[in-house]
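Reply to dn_fold:

You asked what the input looked like. This is it:
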Amino acid sequence: MTRRFGITLNVARPAFTAGDMLIVLLLAAVLYAGVRLAVRAPAEVAYPSVSLSPAALAWYALLSVGRMSAAYALSLGFTLVYGYVAAHNRLAEKILMPLLDVLQSVPILSFLPVVLLSLTAILPQGIAVELSAIVLIVTSQVWNMTFSFYQSLTTIPRELHEATSVFRLNRWLRLKTMELPFAALPLVWNSMMSWAGGWFFLMAAETFTVGERDFRLPGLGSYLQMAANNEDIPAILMGLGALVIVIVLIDRLVWQPVLVWANKFKVEATEGGDDAPESWFYDLLSRSVLLEQFGRHVWTPLSEWVDRSMGRLLSPPAANRQSGANRSALSTVLLGLGGLAVVAFLAYNLVGAARLLLAVPLAEWGRIGLGTLVTLGRVILALLIALAWTLPAGVAIGSNPRLSVVLRPVVQIVASVPATALFPVVLLVLLRLPAGLDVAAVLLMLMGTQWYLLFNVIAGVSAIPRDLVYMTDLLHLRGWERWRTLILPALFPYLITGLITAGGGAWNASIVAEHTHFGGQTFSTIGIGALISEATGRGDYALLLGATLAMIVTVIAINRLFWHRLYRLAEEKYRIE
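and this is what came back:
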């Protein structure tokens, strides 16, 4: 049964552990190693020209969708492996979840110069820039998907676990028949959000400057960026029109069919009614004779072969167990050697990072501290505004199928339009007001992060079993009573996931929200994001490292002191049983 909504923070768990500090030190060492490579990068970089001709839009759209697809494939693979290990191994969870906090809080727009310049030092320029763009898009897609998958695996009803134990399913069959189906619906919704979030960073991924070096890739992002810089309103409208067409096509041909497919895995005790999502393209594919033959002669035999292979792999014969001790000893030796290599890497690069940080003047550290506090205030304000409207809107969309059919594509389109493309227009209006740039910074954070919350709320409402909805109808629960006994408890894990990822996105968005270029002018306000952008623009790697680490430590502390206590509460108390 779903419990009533009440929060008691009684989880006895260290807020900020030695493991967290080790991860921060490791990240500092990796950043410093990247800085050393970045210094060796070519001083001049040639980039392809970007045409504002309408004839180029189709090719640019294809290039951008290709980068997004590659990034999503990498994000999905990371999500399945990382989330599974973190959910099933308590020791690994103590390392992987704090590490995930670090990774999702890394301001990638500050880390990208290091990645990009490091790659150009060791790879051909074209490959290095493409890889860097894909890495940036991955970091805008992967975190909410991983948090969602982990949350799903840790809140599976106990009776499903008991059923897999009764049938003696091995790990592979348990993953295939219980865990992936249970996680499918929220993972699809978060995938839609991740794809939309990828568009937000597309402009930054395809157009990037570091000091005098100008990196540019042809695509929709670079087209919109050039049109905005040239103040070419017709080109901006054509670019946004092409983007909307691409979003609608992907929604109708990919996400809607996948959502219909994932809805059949919804856990409930009653038969699905007329409110199930529909897709004409899914119906068309389901009647395809070629796909039926492919499934019968290729997919089914391949699936059975994988099941047998994974079964043998996870359940080794008794004859092979005798050599297990030898393999274990060898693994111990290799693990020890790997540990020594990591320690040596840490020691060498941490010394260099410390020297680089000592080069930051004391006055700059004061600016870093003040900027962190100011940006924290903007992040909190953006999250509160987002929560105030996404909670009722998400519940309305997720619980009303007819409304969902109309509004979900609209939300998908609006969420996918890069806020950075609209930001110059917002600036033109708000700069005339008192504290206009501060208001604009909060607005850009909101435009980039509110969708994480909205999509998670819709996913949570869509996952509520229909039998519980029928029960509340029979008990005549309305208004606040219905919210208190059903909606809020069922949404609690999804809200925590959405708030964590939205918070990380807001910190990342601060880099473009607090320091921006438009019409040949630079607009900047106080904040840690502005400091990172400033350091990136002038190639000040010492200030870049200090400001980046300050942001990372702040976000980790907030997550460990606040969000993860609520995450544990969601896992232990607010699961549907």
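The first strand starts at residue 207 and ends at 210.
Hope that clears it up.
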